[in-house]
Amino acid sequence: MKIKEDFVLRKVADSYVVVPVNKLTLDFNGIITLNETGAVLFEKMQKGTSREELIENLLAEYDVSPEKAAADVDKFIQKAKDADVLE
To answer: Is 1 inside any structural domain?
Structure first.
């Protein structure tokens, strides 16, 4: 799975925001705010990745159980689908 090319991630103060650029500015209204974990997942998905790789990344980056990492990844993927940011 991969994030559409016309979305960019930026750090603003202590938050992360995703904004549309280029032609998507006409179709997508608003911004998406992410926490640090969401930003890590978003960055990995910009390059293209699998669910399993995202879970492995969370396990390597944070002290969480495999079940918690999988649940967080599934929730993030669903929100990304709902926001229509996936290719």
So the answer is: no
